[in-house]
Amino acid sequence: MESSRQCLTLVSAVVVMAALVVCQAPGVTHAQDRQPPTRVIRTIVIDPGHGGANEGALGATGSQEKDEVLKVAYAVRDHLAKAHPEIKVVLTRNLDVEMSLPERIHVANALEPDLFISLHMNASRNVEANGFEVFFLRADKSMPLVTAGEGTWGRDFDAPSDPVEFAEGLPVALDESVHRPSAGALPILMADLERGRAHRDSALFAEALLGEMRRAFRGRRSRGVRQANFGVLRGARVPAVVVELGFISNKEEEAWLARPETHASFASALSQAIERLDKAHHTRKYMGRSLQR
Question: What residue numbers bound the domain in which 166 lies?
């Protein structure tokens, strides 16, 4: 009897060990490991500025902003297709065609993306001007409505030590029309709250992206996160930023901006910033977009 018990115990031990070996065997994963992570960031619109007859800024040696930002957009699209195939990436233009501001805004809103990123390059009469910067909307009626690429417009924004905490603390500005008693007050209120949440998300992503660009572009000047009343930002109802990658009016920076390595570095930085924002969505429940869309 005792011998039978010992034999049974030995067999049980062998079965357990075999199960452990199978679980740890190469190529064998748990079911949950095979599942792709639930993403909040599922659709991104990349907007290469200008196009067609609208050349944008002119470089020191003749390059045109419209062409250079399109190359960067291609690099971003291709990188994200490999790094995050589960994310849908849409370009507002794939060719050298002119798009009006209303057309860009329509794309930004019609697709209901989780991020809208408008790419630009700066220019200045000061040929020594240099550096990259990221803008999000400053909803201030005292500021003029401007177009990205018109030089440095906007106000400096001190980067917070904790961008998530900062974004949570941003007020949700309510439109004055919300306070007017009317039958349509609730839809207006909901739309305004959505804009407020998009504004907070924009601030968070702008800070995350600038941080990743600083790491990717070591040795280059960072002009920081800034706020401006750019038309493309004001019209977007989704989280949106404008990225000024550098000054093509600066001969040295123009050459640097044209390098494929620079495009690849920015694409990688953008990918990392998306990861940071996606994690923030999961860990902090202040975001306005539901995981179930």
Answer: 36-283
Q: Is residue 3 part of a domain?
A: no
Tokens 């009626």 map to which residue? 141
As a whole number of angstroms, the distance between CA 165 and CA 41 comes to: 20
Tell me the C-alpha distance between 172 and 124, whole Å: 35
pTM above 0.85, yes or no: no
pLDDT digits 0-9 by tens, 179-219: 344 555 555 444 555 666 788 889 999 999 999 999 999 99
What is the pLDDT confidence band of residue 174, given thresholds at 50, 70 and 90? Answer: very low
Domain count, the chain: 1
CATH of the domain at 110: 3.40.630.40
Average model confidence (pLDDT) for the chain?
A: 77
- Would residue 214 count as lying in a domain? yes
For 255, the token pair is 């050459």
And the tokens for 223? 């002009």
Q: Is residue 99 part of a domain?
A: yes
115, with CB counted inside 10 A (0-12, 13-18, 19+), is buried
Contact (CB, 8 A) for 207 and 275: no
What is the C-alpha radius of gyration for the chain, rounded to an integer number of angstroms?
Answer: 24
